[in-house]
Design a protein that fits this description.
By secondary structure, this protein is α+β, with helices and mostly antiparallel strands. The chain has one domain. The protein is 25% helix and 14% strand. Strands 1-6-2-3-4-5 form a six-stranded antiparallel beta sheet, with helices on both faces. Helix 2 packs antiparallel against helix 3. The longest helix is centred in the first third of the chain and has 16 residues. The two termini are 24 Å apart. The N terminus is likely disordered.
Length: 252
């Protein structure tokens, strides 16, 4: 990780003060590690060329999710029970994107965009980019009827969103985890949980904080595992130890 000038960031912290909380979190982390071992990669479906299909209502295959009552252990770098938004210093476009993310990160339904149970991360990230001002095109679009299974694959698939952005360097610049000093709020973060080369999870960066030791803290929001200001480091060391993480730097 590199160091660099501080970017505007959105911040919030929750302090846990409770007897025995360490033991509870440790037990939850072990249980969640066993549950998440079965989670597979984001589905890859064909990219539509010209617009929404008229009759294909087949759902995108998804991995079985952990029961909602269990969930992942809380993130000590940023628990998700309090979500505070600070857009000071951000552009109007990024402000609109993060305001949308802040307003909808807990939702599990959308009349306009629909919701994909256990696999809604890219659908949600695409919505935030749309709120930012991105225009839909022949390959990246959502179903106007609100059926996400009929939206284009780059709109709802992490791997296909990666491929979509790879073909559009003017729209987003690929960054590795060694380039954290170039990441900023509103950028896209993608995870490869099993180091297979595809992308298994996608979110939107909510905070970037260079630290005195030269490291950079990055936090993100997302769906499927509904979260706000979750630490990237926590995701790749506790939730999925050893996972790879990548970013897409978006101008504006």
């Amino acid at each position: 990780m590199g160091s660099g000038a501080a970017h505007p960031s959105t911040r919030r912290r929750t302090v846990w003060v409770a007897a025995g909380v360490t033991a509870v979190l440790a037990g939850a982390a072990v249980g969640w590690g066993l549950l998440t071992a079965a989670v597979g990669a984001d589905s890859v479906v064909p990219v539509a060329a010209t617009g929404p299909p008229e009759a294909d209502l087949r759902p995108v295959p998804t991995a079985e999710a952990a029961p909602a009552s269990i969930g992942p252990p809380p993130d000590p770098e940023g628990t998700d029970d309090i979500a505070v938004l600070d857009t000071e210093g951000l552009s109007a476009a990024v402000t609109a994107q993060l305001e949308y993310a802040h307003a909808h990160w807990r939702e599990r339904d959308s009349e306009q965009f629909g919701y994909i149970p256990n696999n809604d991360c890219v659908n949600f990230t695409s919505q935030t980019l749309f709120a930012r001002g991105w225009e839909q095109d022949a390959e990246w679009w959502h179903d106007p009827g609100g059926n996400p299974y009929r939206s284009s694959s780059p709109w709802i698939s992490s791997t296909n969103l990666m491929r979509y952005l790879q073909a559009r360097p003017e729209q987003a610049t690929a960054l590795t985890d060694d380039q954290r000093e170039l990441v900023k709020p509103g950028d896209v973060v993608q995870f490869d949980w099993d180091n297979s080369g595809d992308r298994d999870h996608t979110g939107v960066v909510t905070a970037v904080e260079p630290r005195d030791d030269g490291t950079v803290l990055i936090e993100y929001a997302g769906h499927t595992d509904h979260t706000w200001d979750r630490s990237v480091d926590w995701a790749i060391t506790v939730l999925h130890p050893g996972a790879d993480v990548y970013y897409w730097s978006i101008p504006g």
